[in-house]
């Protein structure tokens, strides 16, 4: 048995802001992917995945009992397949902010949800919000609390524009320019980040009036502008807003940036060779980078592992 492939995602803009109703833009990233598979002689990793699926299936049973109108699963088939050695075979790194649990949630929903909303039907806003709600409940098993956006992105394999909590739509983004010098890239921090503790820090900070004002008047403002610029292909304005956003994050989200990257972050803002921002909740994993000249960024970040995601 081998299920269809589900891809990782990158939240280009909106980390933390979407909790407070900023806009956001999430895109599928086909470099990493995962699929449900079955086998007999499982490796240690596959055994762990199989055990995690067993606990997940019990959790899904609870969701179904609590919310019978929201979602139901063919749990008999799921439990039988798990007993037969099913696991999630994935190249998506965990704790890197690229949606490893999202792809797994999408795969389970796709295979075992009864009366599922399919990718082929007319995806109205209502259907997208219902899917997001289902996925949020499902993915909470892994993160404690989930917006449901990562699995939604993985399930649809389309860019998703978040206008607000109750207003999301699939969108198109300008086609890549393979010859372009500008790029969005991933910078490997070399360590794993955990979502729950980072979100906890953010929620604590939100209790302070000064921090709340900064989020509302600076962070959300520049995040929204970046989303608008990216979708409309306004590269010049985008990099102006990115510089501001990178600065705001460095000043106000230090706990989410691994300490050894503080200087590198500042260097990008000072030289304009690249601008860094959080990829997901931060704390480790990948850091997102934007540059108008990839060759310059590579020189400035020599010795670091960079992966190009999108070319301008």
TrEMBL record:
<keyword id="KW-0547">Nucleotide-binding</keyword>
<protein>
    <submittedName>
        <fullName>Mevalonate kinase</fullName>
    </submittedName>
</protein>
<dbReference type="InterPro" id="IPR014721">
    <property type="entry name" value="Ribsml_uS5_D2-typ_fold_subgr"/>
</dbReference>
<keyword id="KW-0808">Transferase</keyword>
<feature type="domain" description="GHMP kinase N-terminal">
    <location>
        <begin position="86"/>
        <end position="150"/>
    </location>
</feature>
<dbReference type="Pfam" id="PF00288">
    <property type="entry name" value="GHMP_kinases_N"/>
</dbReference>
<dbReference type="InterPro" id="IPR020568">
    <property type="entry name" value="Ribosomal_Su5_D2-typ_SF"/>
</dbReference>
<dbReference type="InterPro" id="IPR006204">
    <property type="entry name" value="GHMP_kinase_N_dom"/>
</dbReference>
<dbReference type="InterPro" id="IPR036554">
    <property type="entry name" value="GHMP_kinase_C_sf"/>
</dbReference>
<dbReference type="GO" id="GO:0016301">
    <property type="term" value="F:kinase activity"/>
</dbReference>
<keyword id="KW-0067">ATP-binding</keyword>
<dbReference type="GO" id="GO:0005524">
    <property type="term" value="F:ATP binding"/>
</dbReference>
<dbReference type="InterPro" id="IPR001174">
    <property type="entry name" value="HddA/FKP"/>
</dbReference>
<keyword id="KW-0418">Kinase</keyword>
């Amino acid at each position: 048995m081998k299920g269809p492939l589900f891809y990782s995602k990158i939240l280009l803009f909106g980390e933390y802001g979407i909790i407070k109703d900023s806009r956001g833009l999430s895109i599928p990233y086909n470099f990493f992917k995962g699929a449900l598979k079955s086998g007999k002689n499982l490796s240690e990793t596959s055994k762990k995945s199989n055990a995690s699926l067993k606990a997940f299936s019990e959790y899904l049973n609870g969701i179904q009992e609590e919310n019978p109108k929201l979602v139901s699963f063919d749990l008999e088939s799921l439990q039988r397949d798990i007993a037969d050695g099913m696991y999630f075979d994935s190249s998506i790194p965990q704790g890197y902010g690229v949606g490893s649990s999202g792809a797994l949630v999408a795969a389970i929903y796709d295979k075992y949800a009864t009366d599922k909303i399919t990718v082929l039907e007319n995806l109205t806003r209502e259907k997208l919000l219902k899917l997001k709600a289902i996925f949020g409940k499902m993915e909470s098993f892994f993160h404690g609390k989930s917006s449901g956006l990562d699995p939604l992105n993985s399930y649809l394999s389309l860019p998703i524009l978040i206008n607000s909590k109750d207003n999301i739509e699939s969108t198109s983004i300008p086609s890549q320019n393979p010859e372009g010098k500008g790029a969005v890239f991933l910078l490997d921090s070399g360590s794993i980040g955990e979502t729950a503790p980072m979100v906890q820090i953010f929620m604590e900070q939100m209790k302070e009036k000064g921090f709340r004002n900064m989020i509302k008047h600076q962070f959300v403002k520049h995040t929204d502008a970046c989303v608008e610029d990216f979708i409309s292909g306004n590269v010049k304005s985008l990099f102006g807003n990115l510089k501001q956003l990178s600065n705001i994050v460095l000043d106000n989200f230090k706990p989410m940036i691994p300490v050894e990257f503080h200087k590198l972050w500042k260097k990008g803002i000072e030289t304009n060779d690249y601008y860094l921002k959080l990829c997901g909740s931060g704390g480790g994993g990948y850091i997102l980078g934007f540059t108008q000249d990839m060759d310059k960024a590579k020189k400035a970040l020599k010795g670091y592992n960079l992966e190009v995601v999108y070319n301008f």
